Amino acid sequence: MEWTKEARYRELEDVTKEELTALEKIVNECPWRQTYHIQPITGLLNDPNGFSYYNGEYHLFYQWFPLGPVHGLKHWYHTKSKDLVHWENIGVAIKPSNQFDSHGVYSGSAIEHEGNLFLIYTGNTRNEKWERFPYQCLAVMDQNGKVTKMDKPIVNEVPKGYTDHFRDPKVWKQDGHYYAIIGAQKESGTGCVVLYRSSDLKEWIFAGEIDTGLKDFGYMWECPDYFELGGQGILLFSPQGLESKGDHFQNIYQSGYVIGSPIDLQKKQLIHGEFQELDRGFDFYAPQTMNDPQGRRILVGWMGLPEIDYPTDRNGWAHCLTLPRELLVREGKLYQKPVKELENLRGEKSEAEITVKNEFVSINGFSGEAYELFAEFSEITAQEFGIEVRVGEHEKTIIKYDSNEKKVIFDRSHSGQSVGKDFGDIRKCRLDAKTVTFQVFVDISSVEVFVNNGEEVLTGRIFPQQNSRGIQFFAVGGQTNLKAMKWNILKD
Ligand code: FRU
Predict the structure, then answer these.
(1) Tell me, what's the ipTM?
(2) Strand order in 116-126's β-sheet?
(3) If you measure from the C-alpha of residue 382 to the centroid of ligand 1, how many angstroms do you get, rounded to a whole number?
């Protein structure tokens, strides 16, 4: 199907039930539908939005174009959960409906206020010349889940000095005030974030640009997020336009953070160390965090990237969200651990403890297409060792450690149908450790690897054949002790 402008900007109301049913049928025939990840019923999912805890439940919205695997007219789709693991699809929460969001209800965030959940987002509009005008808008969700849009934007102009790339408000409360940061592009063509302040979430004052010291760091910073953890200030953002550098910045766009002293809201200044990538794999972008009632800082990302074709496109859908990760600060670095509740998904268990020496071994009970796998490698003399998952006759996805280079390597060059080939199919990241653990979540079309308790995370979509279900452990140029555990994750 050709995605004309008309097709991309068609309103959901104008689509017949029959059309939607036909689309759903094609989507459901896709061999790569996930089993325990949040994915769209049809169409394209991108950024997580409005991630929050409200009225006794976790709420997670996402950017959604319902009609196909392209970036068309965006809505906020609503899901909710009691445990961060079993998510209920609620439906569209915010749809484009007026002159302030006619060309898309773009990304934003949520915060509780006076018993309601305030949803703050960017309304994207375009004129006949297809010039863009962003507005920052507000919708309010009540305890019954009813969402009401405010009829006027809360920020109706872009301040002087910035372009129309001005979006993705992330709001938080501090010292009795509300603050929001917005991703922006300066007229000089570089990315940055700006700060707004409010006392009631309705009237907002532009406070100015945040001085991060990063003067020429990409051309646009999308989806910023600010929070404090372990006494430190952390600014997350997704910069576009960074050149790749060694093993770094290998994807089309990046997502990462800077960490330092808490932000000085008066001076609008953040003093911090170097920009660090959050995920060293392939498909990860525009993450958002929330603080939950247990005091945890939890992150969810888009397991996808813009401007790349994926094999599921042919079946009318694209992308999913990552599993929720708890963030922890250790020595100036964010560690990311799969949230504890994911243990609720564990089914039948297999276990093994062996020595692997210059060989590739398969172990009884270790196979499948949707599971959690934990492997600890110790007493290592091998030059290279690791795991192959989704192994078939001609397919395998490799997660390994190279002891000479001291690097973790994620290789999807033989994973099945390829994706994003132009950006390479191997990712590497440095890790200096005597014992290496891989906690791997495999779903029908994805792999998320948490290395050494979340010191590094590598995420990637893969598109193997259904019968590629093998798991192999290996060691080359020496040996390693291996302790392995695997739990099936059942479709619900
Ligand atoms: C990031 C992004 C945001 C924007 C949204 C539109 O992926 O480009 O900046 O709000 O997607 O869907």
Answers:
(1) 0.99
(2) 105-113, 116-126, 132-141, 147-149
(3) 44
Q: Give the closest residue to 315 by CA, choosing from 11, 117, 78, 23.
A: 23
3 state SS of 423: helix
Closest ligand 1 atom to 71 CA = 12
- Return the closest-CA partner of residue 282 out of 301, 265, 299: 301
- Widest Cα–Cα separation across the chain: 68
168 lines ligand 1 (CB under 6 A): yes
Give me the pLDDT at residue 491, please: 60
Amino acid identity of residue 264, one-letter, is D
Summarize pLDDT for 114-142 with one digit per residue, the tens: 999 999 999 999 999 999 999 999 999 99
Is residue 247 scored above 80 in pLDDT?
Answer: yes
Tokens read off for 331:
């020595």
Catalytic residue among 14, 47, 101, 422: 47
Active site residue 47: yes
Q: Which residues contact 30 (CB under 8 A, 6 or more apart)?
A: 312, 315, 316, 317
Average pLDDT over every residue of 325-340: 98
Mean pLDDT score of the chain: 97
Asked if the model's pLDDT at residue 18 lies above 70, the reply is yes
Residue 220 CA: which ligand 1 atom is closest? Answer: 9
Is ligand 1 within 6 A of the CB of residue 395?
Answer: no
Instruction: Report CA(120)–ligand 1 centroid distance (Å).
Output: 14
User: Is the minimum distance from the CB of 124 to ligand 1 under 6 angstroms?
Assistant: no
Q: What is the pLDDT of residues 446-464, one digit of tens each?
A: 999 999 999 999 999 999 9
The full set of domains in the chain, from first to last, is 5-338 (2.115.10.20), 344-489 (2.60.120.560)
Distance of CA 191 to the CA centre of its chain: 20
Q: What token pair was written down for 445?
A: 């079309």
**Tokens found for residue 55:** 């009225």
Q: 145 CB less than 6 Å from ligand 1?
A: no
Atom from ligand 1 closest to the CA of residue 238 = 1
Q: How far apart are CA 365 and CA 387, in angstroms?
A: 15
Rounded Cα gap, residues 9 and 71, in angstroms: 10
- Return the pLDDT at 490: 79
Distance 63 CA to ligand 1 centre (A): 8
Tell me if residue 7 falls in helix, strand or coil.
helix
pLDDT of residue 220: 98
**Distance (Å, whole) CA 361 – CA 364:** 10
**pTM higher than 0.95:** yes
pLDDT band at 2 (very low <50, low <70, confident <90, very high): confident
Query: Using CA positions, which residue lies closest to atom 9 of ligand 1?
Result: 222
């019968």: which residue's tokens? 467
